[in-house]
Amino acid sequence: MKLLVILFALLGFSSATFIATCDECTMIVDTIANYLTGQDSIDRRVEILLAEVCPVFPDDCVEKLPEFWGRVAMVLWPGYFSPAEEWMCGGPGPCGAKAPRDVTCDECLEGIQSSIDQLLTEEFVAGIVDALSGDGFCGMEEDAELCASTIAVLIPLALPALAQFDPAVASELCNTAIPDTCPAY
């Protein structure tokens, strides 16, 4: 199932989507980051990428992608789903100046969808490519130039392939972060 919902939920938790408490926003975003960096989630993402990205990638994609994506995921998701970032909970949003209130299930789900939509914008895709191509990821790889050229092709193909909203998974993430946020699920 393509539920990269979580990986993008972080973006949608800005003040434009809803106003949760700072603690609620932080719990939701941290839950998404933890989910996306768990081995089961990484394995599911690799399956999607092998099916949807490798057919248009170089010959050694099937062999090298699983290990490479595992390393990418451990940098990408915590970097994107970081509560301190302005596009998540920081800035004028939940941990800023607005008065907090309890978040509803619909608001949590809309926040996740908004974060996915934002993640797929040209600006964010380019920013992720730049960030991963630099010292924080590719700079630590054995062949930094090969890594950067791979990231430049992989990320624009991978993010849309992974960015499918699954309401059941999103509801589970909301409930994991804030129990009983989505009681019907």
Question: How does this model look, in words?
Answer:
With 185 residues, the protein is mainly α. Helices cover 60% and strands 0% of the residues. The chain contains eight helices and no strands. α5 crosses α8. The N terminus is likely disordered.
Protein traits:
disordered N terminus, single chain, 185 residues, globular, mainly alpha
Give, in order, the helices and strands.
Answer: HHHHHHHH
Strand content: under 5%
What Rg do the Cα atoms give?
Answer: 16 Å
Average residue pLDDT: 84
Helix content: 55-70%
Which structural class matches the secondary elements?
mainly alpha
Oligomer: single chain
Task: Summarize it.
The chain has 185 residues and is mostly helical. It contains 8 helices and no strands.
Write the layout of secondary structure elements.
Elements: H1 5-9, H2 22-36, H3 39-52, H4 61-80, H5 105-119, H6 122-133, H7 144-162, H8 167-177
